[in-house]
Predict the structure.
Amino acid sequence: MPATVEPTSVGPTPVEAASVEATSVDASVEPGRDGSAPSDVPAAQTLRPHAEDAFAAELAALAAQDDRPRPARWRLSPWAVALYLLGGTLPDGTVITPKYVGPRRIVEVAVTTLATDRALLLLGVPGTAKTWLSEHLAAAVSGDSTLLVQGTAGTPEEAFRYGWNYARLLAHGPSRDALVPSPVMRAMAEGRTARVEELTRIPADVQDSLITILSEKTLPIPELGEEVQAVRGFNLIATANDRDRGVNELSSALRRRFNTVVLPLPETPEAEVEIVARRVDQIGRSLDLPAVPEGVDEIRRVVTVFRELRDGVTADGRTKLKSPSGTLSTAEAISVVTNGLALAAHFGDGVLRAGDVAVGILGAVVRDPAADRVVWQEYLETVVRERDGWQDFYRACREVTE
Ligand SMILES: Nc1ncnc2c1ncn2[C@@H]1O[C@H](COP(=O)(O)OP(=O)(O)OP(=O)(O)O)[C@@H](O)[C@H]1O
Ligand SMILES: [Mg+2]
């Protein structure tokens, strides 16, 4: 998961996965095929359904009307995958919601890469939707976004290869039955998309175990004198954070196996407001929070503050600003607004106001209590205070800043 704690983030963290596993030990409940959730929990009940479940209707409509050629084992043609990601309307009038807001070309290159023999590396600063895009790509291409390896400093080689069920191993010796395949191994055997999160946090020698998989498309199992050869349709999407550069540099041998796509920050304030409003609406609905339209002005203000501080200059280009140490990403704007909506719903009148987002903004901006506080106060006094129609916002921020 991201370095920043980001409640709206996607994908099970190792901790989440572990706790789900711990609760599914109950023998009467059959765990799902990946052990991630009991299979009899309907998707509507899960706190955060996988992309392929949340957007099952859109994916089915696309598959039904997609008459373009599909690469082996793809659920959709590359054209339909791009349409799923960027949004649009199908001939029968079905509306496909945009998942990724950004340059069309980026999506086209990413989708095309998956249809070649090169893997895809999504690179970018925190909160630029690397994980999000990777999940939706896997969902659209393979109908399954769960073949996931979470990269950390402690990720072992087994996470890419295989492990052993020791009880079976000791009882019967090494056999296919005793082998526990990694998500990557399963993706190879089934011709699906595997995902690796935060590739550059993984120690270099472990990263290198991906080289054979990506170049030879095979995974040897010396203990059994066998190998698993990748089936057509297999590919891999990795994400890496720009800010982690230098933690564990990607070896050049491994980098050559990837096509790199750099995800940019949203180009315009309007695009960023749209992303935040859309995601907050989705998250809010799953948490039964009030609808967003009431709060769109407040969203615009949060996005404006984040962008100005991030860019180090006011939107009109007139005043130079110091930037705080936090990333102030779109993802953080999403959590600030979601938390604000929850405050408004539970302790206010359900309408998002300045007072509901002020605490969240302060928390996102002031990461370093000394230096960032000065930056924030200067911004409040020189920019926010003077801005027409921002008096309520200024007062709300002052109140929590003291
Ligand atoms: N261009 C965008 N289009 C759609 N959603 C976006 C965009 N940028 C950010 N988001 C939203 O931001 C949230 C966080 O994105 P995500 O977790 O994928 O970021 P990330 O790049 O993986 O960050 P990190 O480097 O911290 O892991 C997601 O909910 C996603 O919807
Ligand atoms: Mg991520």
Notes: The CA atoms of residues 148 and 195 lie 5 Å apart. The pocket of adenosine-5'-triphosphate (ligand 1) is lined by residues 2, 4, 8-10, 100-102, 124, 126-132, 239, 241, 266, 275, 279, 330-331, 334 (CB under 6 Å).
